Amino acid sequence: MKAAVSGSTGFIGSILLNLLKDDNDYTNVQVLARRALDLSGKFNVLVGDISNQKLADVDVAFCALGTTIATAGSKDAFYHVDHDMVIDFAKNAKEAGAKTFVLVSSVGATPNTSNFYLKVKGETEKDVESVGFESLIILRPSMLLGERKEFRFGELIGKAVMTVVNPLMLGSLSKYKGIQGKTVAKAMQRLGKENLRGVHVLEGNELHAFS
To answer: 48 phi and psi, to 5 degrees?
Structure first.
């Protein structure tokens, strides 16, 4: 199976690459990145503007692209990464033959909200669906837990809170539980092989099954 990965240097994407490295079902992986990466074997790193990268034959595309408004510098810059670049990657993957697209979104994503972050995520989901993949798998995790390369003070506080409240989140609240980044990456890895027809949305509570 041939795959393509965008968002490969981020939290989820970097974990996913480690999983794909040892997964013999994925024989070739094109990795889109803005800089050279020290990868070998089955990985083919394509360096440059992700929006303009042309992919070779692809069966499944994994998208873990994402940033924050603080990191991006503005709402417009955030929208470019979390929406425009995702849609460009989806279109390029479809053109390269991808049947399956696995997207990391966010719990609460909807185009019908005044919350800017969740609105962008919801619009991105809707626009990726319009690309027309045979199988579209949307993952909606809550706060991501685990060690990041970069320090985010707000997330540090959030993780401390999640440690306390996670056991209290039952029933309809379970989708808001914090989740390990590796669990989300495992879900991507496994679901990319399933050839599930149509659109499938997995909320946080469903993703915990992949831990």
So the answer is: 145, -165
Whole-prediction pTM: 0.87
Q: What is Dmax (Cα atoms) for the chain?
A: 47
C-beta atoms surrounding 88 within 10 Å:
18
DSSP string, 64-90: -----HHHHSSHHHHHIIIIIIHHHHH
Buried b or exposed e, range 11-23, using 16+ CB within 10 angstroms? bbbbbbbeebeeb
Residue with tokens 């959030």: 158
Residues 94-124 as b/e (b if ≥16 CB within 10 A, e otherwise) read: bebebebbbbbbbbbbeeeeeeebbbbbbbb
Asked whether the CA dihedral 95, 98, 104, 108 is positive or negative, the reply is positive
Half-sphere exposure in the Cβ direction for 129 (13 Å, CA): 14
Res. 152: pLDDT tops 70: no
Query: Which pLDDT score is estimated for 49?
Result: 86
